[in-house]
Description:
Layout: H1 2-35, H2 47-102, H3 125-145, E1 158-173, E2 199-203, E3 208-218, E4 221-230, E5 248-257, E6 261-269, E7 297-308, E8 313-322, E9 348-359, E10 362-376, E11 382-396, E12 400-410, E13 423-425, E14 436-438, E15 440-453, E16 456-467, H4 469-474, E17 485-500, E18 503-516, E19 521-534
Antiparallel strand pairs: 1-2, 1-3, 1-19, 3-4, 4-5, 5-6, 6-7, 7-8, 8-9, 9-10, 10-11, 11-12, 12-15, 13-14, 15-16, 16-17, 17-18, 18-19
Helix pairs in contact: 2-3
Amino acid sequence: MQGRAFRKFLRSACFLAGSFLVCAVTGSGQELARLAPPEASAPATTPEIRALSELIQEMQSQVQALNSQLSDMRTEQKRASEETRELRRELDLLRAPAAPAEAGVSPPVAKSSPAAPAGPQEPTTSDRLSRLEENLDVLEGKVNDQYQTKIESGSKYRVRFSGIALFNLYENRGTVENQDFPQLVESPASQALFVSPGSFGGSLRQSQIRVQAFGPEIAGAKTSADVAFDFAGGFPDVPNGAVMGVVRLRTGTIRLDWANTSLVGGQDRLFFAPLAPTSIATLAVPALSYAGNLWAWAPQLRVEHRFALSDSSTLSIQGGILDSLTGDVPLEGYGRYPSWGEESGQPVYATRIAWSHRAFDQNFTFGAGGYYGRQDWGFNRTFDGWGGTLDASIPFGKRFEFTGAFYRARGSGGFGGGIGQTALANGGFFDPATRFLGLDSMGGWAQLKFKLRPNFEFNGALGIDAPYARELRQFHSNSIYGDSYTRNLSPMANFIYQIRSDILISTEYRWLNTSILDSGSNRASHINLSLGYLF
């Protein structure tokens, strides 16, 4: 009893002593604060403390943004999970009636009324099961996507990393200018050392890497940037360098997108010739290049405005300036000299107008474009280059689609026209008295697509490019090109099967027929097997 009383007394004494000490310290602090001069409180507002406060506020805002994104991801994940469970439940219900039939027991047959009119046939149970399984795979992929680790950006805004690892096996019959994605057939006499009944090889250099960034709104416009690379920029000077492609910049754009207007600056494909045939065998350059398909990755600045004509029709107008490319090979590996188009001191001026109409859940699009540029081939030897384009995309139901494009141009080798030939000369290249003219040409391509299933399609296309032979013949003695090509014809056919959302395979056959001025034509065939993994 005495021990418990003593411990109680000791706790009370400690409590009183601690209370007395706290009161004393508090009172002393208040007295010091009252007696201290005003300058004593200045450290509380020093720049370091203000910077720390701003940093804390910025971290709080970033945490709030992260919490908001996390909440959105959780909501999307929950919604996808619910849809997955619902589809599984429906799938189990559809499978349940089929079990007795598989075991040899016939399910009950409903008696139909003889007076009931014949209507459209309902989808069978197997068809519904197939569709549900496909939808289930898609939803599971979306759910799994919520769990993948995202790329960290140097800013607080979202970044997307994507691309394709593409493996091509190919066989060529004939003398082509490039083995893994040929566009022209060369004369066997000019490449006698490399002429063989057939060549076989493989390549990974058409693989691509793409980085997209999505930034803040500026003046009501959504901002974004996009850069794409591949490995088709040449070959290192090392043993077996042919299978070690050099990284190459393809496109890179910065966009400001308002509701009906877009401003785009950077290096992009030709906006006045936006379509291209469908092919996995040739991603390093668009399919049917130099066979009627205009293309270039040109630095440009353009503006697009969209008008709503009705609930189902829109009209878009584009206009801009482009770097005046003429297809020149760089003179040096590091120093950059102006192209013959850039020497004129003017850009290329281009425009396009397109009408789109949506009917039967399909988009019908017709477009027309044109460009004008000036070229200076030294010693003030100038001429005008120009071109006009037409393009169309016409679906026929859900399985068939027709796409095509046509062009007529002069001095268009830098944009893929004229089989890469731009200018003609009536004398020596280094003679100031020589007159230069732009080569006239025309061409186009057409493609028919058949979709057996949403992930399985067949494509057949034909392209032709035809520079004016009479102009080439008139200036043939002073040609600035090795060979004078008068026509390049190329039909192709392929199928593309997307096994899953990230794996696809494709087989393509292409036939090439290139005519050389007054020397007949050369023929070759190209067979390509492609295996791609999308990421």
